[in-house]
Amino acid sequence: MDTSGSRPHGTDIAPHDSDSSFSPSGVGVIDKASLILDLLEAGPASLSQLVSATGISRPTVHRLASALAHHRLLGRDMQGRFVLGSRLVELASAAGEDRLIAAAAPILVQLRDATGESSQIFRRQGEWRVCVASSERPIGLRDTIPVGTQMSMKAGSAAQVLVAWEDHDRLLEGLHGARFTATMLAGVRRRGWAQSIGERESGIASVSAPVRGPGGRVIAAVSISGPIERLTRQPGRQHAETVVAAARQLTQAIRPVG
């Protein structure tokens, strides 16, 4: 039940100022949540400030803000005020996925040819990492990872890259049950690349590096993978420089023009 006070039904959402472009859709709960998000675009706000700015009752604002925080669409700052959440950054990054995939093909082919190993790009989707582009080694023993393959976030060099630059809470969450450690991830951040040897699958080694979005946040990992007998037990020594160069090319390719 909506405890929005004595306002007539359908009139409990109003633009927060006369210049607002907020336009209700008629789906009340979505409109109210959207209004809260719109208000926080200007910066942090306390519960009381949200109530005052929206004209929505305190219990309703509290319930909606708590639900949005549960889904990481909102967060809290050091003063306990509501702020826009990390999930919005992830969604904004995903909105640029077409640009990443469009740029990926020639760079992955170059990476495959330079290293002699299959190359891939992984993005995080919830609790999984998903291969969104790949270029397979044409002949011989290879690690085949088709586009669309879901893989664990708890093992492998791409998972290390996608976890290493997360905020503190998500990093701790990513380490729970993982085959890599906090010390290993500190090394990944320091070097700018990750390697794994039999971590995801026995006999397979890989090297990965971060692809960054326009804001500098890690949005994907570019990788090569193949049998340990070719990549050796120190695959980064052979291939890290080449993989990092490919990741930088992709980072540059998805930057907005102008």
UniProtKB/TrEMBL annotation:
InterPro entries: GAF-like_dom_sf, HTH_MetabolicPath_Reg, Tscrpt_reg_IclR_C, Tscrpt_reg_IclR_N, WH-like_DNA-bd_sf, WH_DNA-bd_sf. PANTHER family: HELIX-TURN-HELIX TRANSCRIPTIONAL REGULATOR, ICLR FAMILY (PTHR30136), TRANSCRIPTIONAL REGULATORY PROTEIN (PTHR30136:SF39). Signal peptide: none annotated. Pfam families: HTH_IclR, IclR_C. SUPFAM superfamilies: GAF domain-like, Winged helix' DNA-binding domain. Keywords: DNA-binding, Transcription, Transcription regulation. This is IclR family transcriptional regulator. The lineage of its organism: Bacteria, Bacillati, Actinomycetota, Actinomycetes, Micrococcales. SMART domains: HTH_ICLR (SM00346). Transmembrane segments: none annotated. Residues 27-86 form the HTH iclR-type domain. Residues 1-25 are annotated as: Disordered. GO terms for biological process: negative regulation of DNA-templated transcription. One of its GO terms (molecular function) is DNA-binding transcription factor activity. Residues 87-256 form the IclR-ED domain.
